[in-house]
Amino acid sequence: MNLETVTFRRETPGDYAEVETLIREAFWNRYAPGCVEHYLARALRQSPDFVPELDILAEADGRIIGSILYSHARILLDSGGELPVLSFGPLAVLPACQGCGVGARLIAHTLALAREAGWRAVLIYGDPEYYSRQGFVPAETYRIGTPDNQYMGPLQAYELYPGALANAAGRLTESSAFEVDESAAQAFDLQFSPKPKEEGNAAQKRFLETLAMRKPRN
Ligand SMILES: CC(C)(COP(=O)(O)OP(=O)(O)OC[C@H]1O[C@@H](n2cnc3c(N)ncnc32)[C@H](O)[C@@H]1OP(=O)(O)O)[C@@H](O)C(=O)NCCC(=O)NCCS
Residue 22: CB within 6 Å of ligand 1? Predict the structure, then answer.
């Protein structure tokens, strides 16, 4: 894969089906048997928290090879009030094109767009090994925790300008679209070609390890 040939553009409704198939291919059996992220993308696009200007695709040779979707999130500040921030996910690269830097480029490209649009920061849940390489730091650095008041390894933050999260101690609340209705997701999946589900693979074990990286936030 020649990274020089990769271009980025906004997703349009005409891309939805292809992108959902791509997301399903990327996430299938990755964090659980099967996946729900293609349904999550559908739900996010219909949510008031969706950020259309940061709904970006990567293309190479006229084919969609990557996708990232952003949504509004909030930090419920310990000092009272709320701070609007961004979150992203699903982030997906076509399996055949993974490991060539497309994911890193999609992140860097959209962080630059978010900065230009005047956003403060991006907070996400993901594997710290991957996101620390993309410039993210543990959200604990800024005393930001989960809704149930934990510091969690996968919860990571990226300031879009220096000091953006200096007074942001609090708890992150993401879009309610992330609360996926499992039965609706399973029904949605029936529209796609059947794929075998796998349980207990190395990626799923690593995911469980990252979930266990947590401690109470005092
Ligand atoms: C995560 C993903 C978007 C990264 O895109 P990519 O184009 O493959 O990533 P890059 O080429 O920028 O980086 C690849 C490197 O990251 C590593 N990596 C990829 N996903 C990782 C993960 N979840 N955890 C830890 N490391 C990961 C790869 O092993 C590779 O390491 P190497 O450079 O030492 O070989 C892509 O692998 C993907 O679609 N994965 C399935 C869906 C997913 O997990 N999405 C993210 C959810 S938070």
Answer: no
pLDDT digit string, tens, across residues 31-81: 999 999 999 999 999 999 999 999 999 999 999 999 999 999 999 999 999
Which residue owns the Cα nearest ligand 1 atom 18?
Answer: 130
Residue 213 pLDDT: 95
| 130 within ligand 1 shell (Cβ under 6 A) | yes
pTM of the model as a whole: 0.95
Domain range for 16: 3-175+182-192+199-216
If one counts the domains in the chain, the total is 1
CATH of the domain at 36: 3.40.630.30
pLDDT tens digit string along 113-132? Answer: 999 999 999 999 999 999 99
Q: What is the DSSP string of the chain?
A: --GGG-EEEE--GGGHHHHHHHHHHHHTTTSSSS--HHHHHHHHHTSTTB-GGG-EEEEETTEEEEEEEEEEEEEEETTSSEEEEEEEEEEEE-GGGTTSSHHHHHHHHHHHHHHHTT--EEEEES-HHHHGGGT-EEGGGGTEE-TTSEEETTEEEEESSTTTTTT--EEEE--GGGS--HHHHHHHHTTSPP-----S-HHHHHHHHHHT-EEE--
The residue whose CA has the least distance to atom 10 of ligand 1 is 101
